[in-house]
Predict the structure.
Amino acid sequence: MNREFKISQSIQNFKLPRYDDLPEVELYLDQTTAYISERLEILGDVKLTNSMISNYVKHKLIRRPVKKRYAADQIAELFFIAVAKNVMQLSDLKAAIELQRRTYSTKVAYNYFVEELENILPYVFGLKTELDEIGNEHTEYQHMLHNIIMAVSYKAYIDKYYSDLRQEN
């Protein structure tokens, strides 16, 4: 099978839950880690551990869990962090989240993030030839998020390419 075809097929069915589809019941740390990691596994090196989440709480990237449980807003922000951390420094992640909080609700920002990721990823992996126009505003936040997702998508593609190459040898 052609390597390019094989790589593109690996993300063909990639979908993340929309904000309203995130768990209604708050999750404990282990459940939160498993929930996010399972959905991002297809991206390869996009991983999240319990200690990473605790560190993000400690550095105030996300709000502290209430009674050790994480709600939809925290889970949505953790999806963004898990994806973006591979191309951004911790301080820049914090600034990006602060910009998002000043600009949009977590629900609006997360849904935009998911739509952009599901738009850009197939483009980078060669499953479509043009990017769709997502959203009707062109804010600083949207421009920044678009570029982060482009970087993440290209990194995911390169990682998958060389992983496949190593398996072949």
Summary: Strands lie at 27-28, 69-70. The mean pLDDT is 92.
